[in-house]
Design a protein that fits this description.
Elements: H1 14-34, H2 45-87, E1 96-101, H3 107-124, E2 128-134, H4 137-150, E3 156-162, H5 168-180, E4 189-194, E5 197-198, H6 203-207, H7 209-213, E6 219-228, H8 232-253, E7 265-269, H9 270-273, H10 276-283, E8 286-289, E9 293-296, H11 301-311, E10 316-328, H12 335-359, H13 367-396, H14 401-419, H15 431-450, H16 471-499, H17 508-515
Parallel strand pairs: 1-2, 1-4, 2-3, 6-10
Antiparallel strand pairs: 4-7, 5-10, 6-7, 8-9
Length: 517
């Protein structure tokens, strides 16, 4: 069998990597040099002022996060890592539980994932129990055969929990209750692992001492990289997203908080996951919406656990020097279709959770994480401001406005791409294009989902959230969602047009006297 520690995502050859950057930079410079300059007309200063002000704000925010990332990665976290090393055996908990959930995952992926989990449990060389929460009998047979073939030492145990195919939330709840039956100590550690995530060798030894070093720490999560099935563009897209995630998660972790406890691999204290309130929230979480009513979370179990830990004031950390490898299987062969489906799920989970997180206020999380959560809701509109202003300028100022805007995007996204070299050993020339695609399509998806938070669907099975409303009520709610979405977009464009003098402010005094005759 292949050791998971030897697995590494494919990287481009040096020739293809450097040639891509050379072509991108050459085309960018040639376009800049060939472009006319008469667009910079002072009478169009409203457009440039608004775009410039927005750019200063967004790029300043990005710079702040990048600086915080560098400080965390090279100063703050290495100090913690050194302190953990000095604790030695005293930094290890009494017992570690590895809870793995699997449903409708390919046999080869299942084999590789559980191979990595079992090898890591054996390598840890201390009391460790693997809890497997699965649906299919074939998976149970395969996992038990693998475990027996490895002949693990006595301190490594395997416990299999079989459930019905009712979703990951039920699988996790059953797994948590199985751990409760073992009566773990309060400072024992539980790792929650997805059935498509492979653990690097030595992960447990690197992560668990942080809980001893910081006794108030509630949970942690790690860096990710991936192997992607399907077209090459999926790999580029995922790698770009994970690089951006690495920067932003490190930045927020400076405040000892994170904005998500990814379901791919997160660790929590046993006294948290054995709390009946925590188990209930993960198993059955609800959202009360002023217009859509009360509806439950279908997906987003990691957001439910994150919100519980955040609400109770526990610190959370991001571990940047541990990299879990995920096996990504896009839901559709088409990149556009797959990316939109995935964004709807990711951003839906985010939007369903961060509004209630914002209502918690600054006290349980600190100022920077709270502002970061607010920015998640604002950024969907600020990302659309640039292209809307560019289109307004194209129609009302000069046809070249959109051309100049795209040049600006090509330049700035390439600078941001190069900044990711601080997070990853290489970046490709596709990152700027995918970054802008992510920004535009992602913002459009967010605005769509914002008004349809009750619409959810699993990507691994054809299950949607059933509604208790009548068909007439359902149509009425759908019409209301569409109306509010269109009205919000219209108001957004109108405000931008007014701020740039495309639409003039009505002379109220003139109309007042005109109406009086």
């Amino acid at each position: 069998m292949t050791h998971s520690s030897s697995i590494a995502p494919l990287r481009p050859t040096p020739l293809s990597l450097y040639s891509g950057h050379f072509i991108y930079v050459t085309c960018l410079l040639a376009t800049f040099l060939a472009a006319p300059s008469y667009i910079w007309d002072p009478k169009h200063k409203e457009f440039f002022f608004l775009i410039g002000t927005l750019a200063v704000w967004r790029y300043s925010w990005a710079l702040v996060n990048w600086i915080r990332f560098l400080w965390y990665r090279h100063v703050r976290f290495p100090a913690w890592r050194q302190a953990c090393a000095e604790m030695g055996e005293a930094g290890m908990p009494g017992h570690v539980y590895l809870l793995v959930t699997s449903f409708r995952i390919g046999t080869e992926t299942t084999r590789r994932v559980y191979d990595s989990v079992m090898r890591e449990a054996i390598h840890y060389n201390r009391p460790c129990t693997i809890i497997v929460s699965i649906v299919e009998k074939a998976d149970e047979t395969l996992i038990k055969q693998m475990f027996e073939k490895m002949s693990p030492p006595e301190h490594v145990k395997l416990s299999v929990v079989r459930i019905g195919g009712t979703g990951k939330r039920d699988a996790l709840a059953c797994g948590f209750r199985a751990i409760c039956m073992n009566r773990p100590a309060a400072d024992d550690i539980v790792a929650v692992i997805d059935g498509d995530s492979m653990l690097p060798l030595g992960m447990i030894e690197k992560c668990v001492p942080l809980f001893k070093l910081q006794p108030d720490l509630g949970a942690l999560t790690t860096d990710e990289t991936c192997e992607v099935e399907g077209k090459w563009i999926f790999r580029e897209w995922y790698n770009m997203r994970f690089a951006q995630r690495h920067v932003f998660m490190s930045s927020v972790s400076m405040s000892r908080r994170v904005l998500t406890l990814t379901g791919r691999m997160s660790m929590m204290r046993a006294d948290i996951i054995t709390d009946p309130e925590f188990i209930r929230q993960v198993e059955l979480d609800w959202v009360n919406h002023w217009r859509l009513g009360r509806f439950k979370f279908l997906t987003g179990d990691d957001k439910s656990s994150w919100y519980y830990i955040l609400r109770h004031g526990y610190p959370m950390l991001y571990v940047p020097d541990v990299q879990v490898i995920t096996i990504e299987t896009p839901p559709d062969p088409s990149f556009i279709n797959s990316s939109i489906v995935l964004m709807r799920r990711w951003f839906g989970n985010m939007l369903r959770t961060n509004s209630r997180a914002i209502r918690l206020g600054i006290r349980p999380m600190g100022f920077f994480p709270w502002i970061s959560i607010i920015d998640q809701r604002i950024s969907m509109w600020t990302a659309l401001t640039g292209p809307v202003l560019a289109l307004l300028a194209t129609f009302f100022v000069t046809p070249l406005a959109l051309f100049y805007y795209l040049m600006w995007i090509a330049f700035t996204r390439y600078v941001i791409t190069l900044s990711l070299l601080a997070a990853r050993p290489y970046v490709t020339a596709w990152y700027p294009l995918l970054m802008y695609y992510n920004q535009m399509v992602g913002s459009a998806v967010k605005t769509f989902v914002l008004f349809r938070l009750d619409k959810q669907k699993w990507t691994r099975q054809n299950t949607t959230l059933s509604s208790s409303r009548s068909s007439w009520s359902e149509r009425l709610v759908a019409m209301g969602s569409a109306y509010m979405h269109v009205a919000s977009i219209t108001l957004f464009v109108t405000i931008l047009a007014w701020m740039t003098n495309v639409i003039e402010t009505p002379d109220m005094e003139y109309w007042f006297y005109k109406l009086r005759g």
